[in-house]
Amino acid sequence: MTTEIRSAAQPDPQAAPAAMHTIEVEPNAGQQTAEIAEETGRRPAAVEPQAVDAGEKKPRLDARALLVMLQEASPTFRDVKPLALRIDKAIAARFPDLDRKVIRTAMRLHTASTRYLKVMEKATARFDLDGKEDGEVTEEQRTHAKQTLKERFAESTKRKKAALDAEKAKRDAEEAERRKAEKLQQLLGKFSKG
């Protein structure tokens, strides 16, 4: 699927061709982005190409869309294997049009996902973009992944407990208010008879 983007400075379709840019967008990228968002626990971002300034060479790509692209291009990302150290440099070399900031953001999203941390917790080897072994996962790195997961699950449990406690407090307050109104009604009934 090809998307044409016109800069805001020249919205006229008859304007100079320098104001129009063509970006390739995968037709099923939205579904894969939703899957990544589900894993990371974040709301999915639209996989729409962003406008490119006439003076800018690189199309800006959202970090989630980059992860989708990496899943399609690399078995390491597709199978969620531990990443080789400094894989961001390998990604930048293979895809020179990508912005390094977007690559770093995508790597943070990927390596912070619960699914990735669960893999890291038990892994012994790291993998490059082609799925070949490239280094090892140290005991310290496995321990860090395990600790991060433990803290994440503890925080999640704490939030759920706080939500349940708040709901219980709300129900208790409503029940107390109902009883108070009922007693007032009884008193009114008692004094109105007399």
Can you tag this structure with a few keywords?
single chain; 194 residues; 2 domains; two-stranded antiparallel ribbon; 4 strands
Please characterize this protein's 3D structure:
- The chain has helices at 29-40, 63-73, 75-78, 87-94, 100-112, 114-122, 139-193; strands at residues 2-6, 20-24, 125-127, 133-136.
- With 194 residues, the chain is mainly alpha-helical.
- The chain folds into two domains: 2-113, no CATH class; 138-194.
- A two-stranded antiparallel sheet has the order 1-2. Strands 3-4 form a two-stranded antiparallel ribbon.
- A hairpin with a 5-residue loop joins strand 3 (125-127) and strand 4.
- Helix 2 (63-73) crosses helix 5.
- Residues 1-38 and 42-56 have low confidence and may be disordered.
Task: Describe the structure in brief.
By secondary structure, the protein is mostly helical. It contains 7 helices and 4 strands, in the order ββααααααββα. Strand 3 and strand 4 form a beta hairpin.
* Biggest sheet: strand arrangement: 1-2
Structural class assignment: mainly alpha
Largest sheet: 2 strands, antiparallel
Distance from first to last alpha carbon? 83 Å
Q: What portion of the residues fall into strands of 2 or more residues?
A: 5-15%
- Provide mean pLDDT, rounded: 76
Strands, total number: 4
In total, how many domains does the architecture comprise?
2
Number of helices: 7
- Molecular shape: elongated
Radius of gyration: 27 Å
The helicity comes to 55-70%
**Topology as H/E string?**
EEHHHHHHEEH
**Low-pLDDT stretches:** 1-38, 42-56
